[in-house]
Write a structure and sequence with these properties.
Helices cover 67% and strands 0% of the residues. With 166 residues, it is an all-alpha fold. It folds into 2 domains: 71 residues, Arc Repressor Mutant, subunit A, CATH 1.10.10.10; 51 residues, no CATH class. The radius of gyration is 21 Å and the shape is globular.
């Protein structure tokens, strides 16, 4: 579920100044890191000043960055991302290795495969839940009705970009 901050920024994005749009874009893309950053660090990443970050936050209803951080701390926990699942799988694999029967046992690989399948099914279910969300519907509608859609694929994502282009 999107936070109040995310909803506010998305709703007012078109009205923002170019500088505020840079700040907003950086903040939206890095919500999980905002709790650890200062206004000056955000400004540096967005190519602006700390004062502009404060001005942006006041324009969308926050007193300052600490006000936003308090709200984000109270927000629901972020969804379990693929990197989180991979880390959990690696930790689980280490535990399975220690607790597993001898490598020659026929049940050792089956337990690991079953656990892996369970994680994969969970990831697929999560993707389908995201695809049914209002945010996904809004994005799909915006792309479908846009005059032009620019696609960028750099390095490892180049192939994906080419697939969308062709």
């Amino acid at each position: 579920m999107p936070t109040a901050f995310t909803q506010t920024v998305e709703a007012r994005f078109a009205e923002l100044t170019p500088t505020s749009k840079r700040v907003a874009s950086y903040m939206l893309a890095n919500l999980d890191r905002l709790g650890l950053e200062t206004a000056d660090q955000i400004a540096q990443q967005a190519g602006t000043s700390g004062i502009s970050v404060g001005r942006f936050l006041r324009s969308i209803g926050y007193q300052n960055l600490d006000d936003l951080k308090r709200e984000l701390r109270g927000a629901q926990e972020r969804p379990w991302l693929i990197t989180d699942r991979l880390d959990a799988f690696r930790r689980g694999a280490g535990q399975h290795d220690e607790a597993a029967p001898h490598a020659g046992s026929p049940t050792a690989p089956n337990a690991a495969l079953a656990h892996s399948l369970e994680l994969e099914v969970g990831a697929i279910q999560h993707v389908y839940q995201l695809a049914q969300s209002p945010a996904f519907a809004r994005v799909a509608d915006r792309i479908a009705t846009a005059d032009a859609v620019y696609i960028l694929g750099i390095q490892s994502t180049r192939g994906i970009g080419n697939a969308f282009y062709s």
